[in-house]
Sequence to fold (481 residues):
Amino acid sequence: MSIITAIAALGGLTLLLAIMLIVANKKLYVYEDPRIDKVEDMLPHANCGACGYPGCRPFAEALVFEKSLPGKCTVSTDEGRQSIAEFLGVDLGAEEKQVARLACAGGTNVAINRAQYVGIQSCQAATLVSGGGKGCFWGCLGHGDCEVVCDFDAIIMNEHGLPIVDTEKCTACGDCVEVCPKDLFSLQPISHKLWVACKNLEHGEAILEDCQVGCTSCGKCAMDAPGELITMKNNLPVINYAEGHNTQEPIQRCPTGAIVWLDDNGTVVKGKESRKIIRKGARSLGNS
Amino acid sequence: MNTESLGTIFLNACLVNNFVLAYFLGICPFLGVSGKMETATKMGGAVMFVMLISSMCAYGIHAFLVSIGAPFLQLISYIVVIASTVQLVEMFIKKISPALFRSLGIFLPLITTNCAILGVALFQTNKEYGFLESIVYALGAGAGFTLALVLIAGLREQLDFAEIPKISKGTALTLFIAGILSLCFMGFAGLGA
Fold:
């Protein structure tokens, strides 16, 4: 008997509440621009935040109301952006594709460890223990936090423990920039081919003891570069991309290969001088 | 029946047995929406409103369930009522203030699963409060929740500009503050029932 009471009581109660909610839904209906839903459907639903908005829906709202431009979405395909632009009747606002670049070339084959880290395999954790044990304090630790954090499988650790960015898959969402405890990643327009793959601030050749491809701040690149293309700052060359000189010349002048040329097909071109010192085998732990 | 005065019931729910800092109920919004003073007060208001409505409904439902001899339906009915009330509040806020709706974000629908609200409904039934007492109890609990939220939001706003060790920034610091605040509220222990 009590089961019937229970069903009746609960059924009645829920029915009552349902009716109340239906009425409230009608009375309190908020008009939303139907274009928002459609634009949101056209976006990739990655919610990565690369556009500068918290997610795809806020970006869709901004597209409809604040005249933000679809080109800001770096994840969507060209056709996807084009169709949104046509749907809303706005400019595409194309921005140049950006990719994440790593400012370190010191894999295990050229850079040594001063201590062996055996804790949790994570750069963030390793950094807390005296900087992670790598000889070069500024260099990549190679535990692959960036590979883990990348939602688009664009980062893969190579055999020397350096992350390799797949420029096709990279959407410039900036997750790897944030996660790297050494701040080695930055987002760069893909047309910036000349790249300083080193971040050590040490002056002179002392760094070569720890890493054979480190920048020795010799300044040869800055001296020979056309115009103001390269200047030395904090013992590192700084490339002024606004100069527009996309020349491979500086990489030939670099004695260690700290300046590289990143080709479209993903290969890293190094100068003749530096090619010599890239060794075949991995370096052993400890002093060499 | 119980013999406490309405003032005692209010103070009891608000300070002595503060839902957040003494009972540790409703910790989720306590940590989640306490970043800014403005949203904290509004969240407090929304929770207080839901507590009030669900407390009144809980009183009615309890009387009804006892009369048909099915008090075992208490818990499930309370949950249904609270969920519907939150839905209603959500629609209401979306209509009245879209900005507040956006700043409360996911925490607004999460009031549904806020144990502090179910706590109010269950405690008042356990303590056998009358209708008026229930309302005062819910208001006290809501005020206490708002108080806790405002206290921690104020501290967090100040600490945003303070120099603190990097390792304790963010959630860790919030938990420190929450613990210390809770210790402070232990000073009220024993004053009420």
Residues 19-188 of chain B form one domain. Helices of chain B lie at 6-16, 27-32, 37-67, 74-96, 98-104, 115-126, 131-159, 171-185.
